[in-house]
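To the structural biology subgroup,

Please find below the input and predicted structure for Protein-glutamate methylesterase/protein-glutamine glutaminase, which we are adding to the shared reference set this quarter. The sequence is reproduced verbatim from the submission form. If anyone notices a discrepancy with their own records, reply to this email rather than editing the shared folder directly, so we keep one authoritative version.
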Amino acid sequence: MTPVRVLVIDDSPTMRMLIKNALREEADIQVIGEAGTAVEARSAIKALDPDVVTLDVEMPGMPGIEFLEKIMRLRPMPVVMVSNQTGPGTATAIEALSIGAFDCLAKPQRAGDPAFAHLGETLRQAAASKKGLIGISARRANAAIAAQAAGAPLGIRPRISRDEPSVIAIGASTGGIEALTTLFSTWPADGPPTLVVQHLPAGFTRGFAQRLARLSPAQVVEAEDAMPIERGHIYIAPGGQRHLMALGSEPMCSLVEAATVSGHRPSVDVLFHSVARRFGKKSLAVILTGMGSDGAQGALEIRKAGGRTIGQNEESSLVYGMPRAAFSLGAIDEEHPLESIHRAVFGA
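Predicted structure (tokenized):
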């Protein structure tokens, strides 16, 4: 098994040593370098091309949040914030996640701190989220050639009824917080029930749902097990240990404990597969910005079932990973910039 290659960025030599020592216990994780400033970190990223970066908030020369923003704009990769300022629910953690951090952990205080117990698994999950980016460009080129040979314009495939769907399912990851905030600020108050998987760690989704509820005309809630799926409502999958599914003759949210799928729990693929089975041609899937390929297989199942699928286009995506993976698989009917997705979904 190829080890997860990690770059540790922290201005404290002591903290870098503690993180490295903790990760030595993880046989499948390799610390390939360290940096104490943004300048050192920039050089190390270019030279080492790590799978995952751990990043502190307080750094000399350039704050970690500003450096995170540059990473996501110039060289997107999984970043795990490890800082005293990024505990669950903190404003700094929410800001980091909205920029594109994979996860935020509170900084351990000493060797043997229980906080270290979560670091290795978080780094594995972050590395898994990157899978699906490699080779996607070639597959997308092949898909483009096939589409053109069939006489279909690139990004738009021949389609299907525009009848209102019975349910809308949305998947997002890196950059998705801001994309969903933009999208739901104009979501109709009486629209079809909408189920959302946004890759977020446990402890963050309830606050995110509350933030969206203040901005959206629709009712936004964090999904609960056995919660009825109703019009005018948006259901955000809780971060953590369970997948969100749509099940039942009278459809309801089902939170299922199971292994990670496509590197995530909750997984967009799991949600989309359940929607395809339950709603078939009356379903609509939207894949927004995100790193990796979660949602591609599920979107294909929705399309095969006769449902409609929409992907965010490359130009408006912070990371064009998840939409690109789905497009390359032949799972996307239409691609649109973020600002046009509302119109594509509702026709107005």
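Summary notes: Residues 116-130 form the longest helix (15 residues). The mean pLDDT is 87.

Regards,
Lab coordination
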